[in-house]
Amino acid sequence: MPLNNIKDLKLAVLIDADNVPYSNVKGMMEEIAKLGTPTTKRIYADWTKPNANGWKGVLLEHAITPIQQYSYTVGKNSSDSALIIDAMDLLYSGKLDGFCIVSSDSDFTRLAIRLRESGMKVIGIGEKKTPSSFIVACDRFIYIEVLDGATQKKKKPKVTAADKKPIEKPAEKALHKVDKQTIELIEATIEDIEDDDGWAFLGDVGNLIVKKKPEFDPRNYGYSKLTPMLKSLTDILEIDERESDKKGIKHVYVRLRLN
């Protein structure tokens, strides 16, 4: 899906370790590299706790700076305030184009809003349990579960010989199961930017959908990109691939199928 010309963004990546499994960091950093250049990478946690032990190798591998934040109160995430303070300091440094906040915590909603008010691009990354208030406060929100190498926090049930059946891959299971609300969003977006003949450039469609719904991602529906996702909706859409000035590169246009 088009990324709205943000590949050259200088990004500060701020990670709330209390809300992210260390096994998912590799996939997250690869995703962030597609969106911009992470010039600052910091992760916040109480590193004196035993559950922080698994992070050491991951931080060294990805050159992420750990920030110590002691837990002053039992049951309270102490990393929030430290991350927010650092974000504001980085904002006023004037050296960044955007922020990537990695957390599933709604406490960062106001921070995301404040950063956008200052002209920053804000990309959120978190689990599907993330409250919608934080999701919509970002320019774009990416679910950890759809990233390469993402691990799930679910225990696998025991399977007996009688229960063994062909395993359906997640992508195959989700294929062609685009919900009605998303289809209506796609249709409305095409109508918003279509030309006199009803055609809309696919890149513009993708960008506008993300502006309307920051968490939209074809991978949520089992598709690697927007093009194959829309090609699967042949009952409502027409696709036209047009030659461009560059050899081997085609521009894709889409319009609502005429009844």
UniProtKB/TrEMBL annotation:
Transmembrane segments: none
Signal peptide: none
Entry-linked CDD domains: LabA_like_C (cd10146), PIN_LabA-like_N_1 (cd11297)
GO molecular function, one term: RNA nuclease activity
Ranges of residues in domain HTH OST-type: 178-256
InterPro entries xrefs: LOTUS-like, NYN, OST-HTH/LOTUS_dom
Protein name, as recorded: OST-HTH/LOTUS domain-containing protein
Biological classification of the source: Bacteria, Pseudomonadati, Bacteroidota, Flavobacteriia, Flavobacteriales
